[in-house]
Amino acid sequence: MGGGSGDKKEEVLSEQELRLRANQFSSELKMLASKVGELELELSEHSLVIDTVAAVDKSRKCFRLVNGVLIERTAGEVLPALKTNQDGIKAAIEQLTAQHRAKEKEFLDFQQKHHIRIASAPA
Looking at the UniProt record for this protein, which Gene Ontology cellular component terms does it annotate, in alphabetical order (predicted)? Predict the structure, then answer.
């Protein structure tokens, strides 16, 4: 009979581990989605600035904040850097979105394997 109580304790730990792992998946998914949202906002801001700078004379003074230091450049010098940053942001969004999809699939596989259903909170 002593073996039965040991099995019961092992089952409780296993349930706790499953719950912990499910919470980790959920937390990672939220973090990835949050980061994608931040980058999409930054991409939108870059697009707005690029549109504005592209419309002005290329020799016009332009100020850019780099690591907390305000640097004076011309619009013609700043535009390529802005476009490069925009491309980098797009690439980061694509990468994080792919990671989110992969993590989501991994979580769904985990849920199916362990017969887990996520209960939604009451409204």
Answer: prefoldin complex
**Whole-model pTM?**
0.79
Evaluate whether residue 21 is within a structural domain. yes
Domain residues for the domain of 41 are 7-113
CATH of the domain at 11: 1.10.287.370
82 domain-assigned: yes
In the chain, the amino acid numbered 52 is: T
Q: Which of 123, 119, 105 is nearest to 28 (CA)?
A: 105
Structure tokens at 6: 């040991």
The one-digit pLDDT tens for each residue of the chain (123 residues) are: 445 444 444 343 478 898 899 999 999 999 999 999 999 999 999 999 999 999 999 999 998 888 999 999 999 999 999 999 999 999 999 999 999 999 999 999 988 988 888 777 676
Q: How many Å apart are CA 81 and CA 64, to the nearest integer?
A: 10
Q: Domains in the chain: how many in total?
A: 1
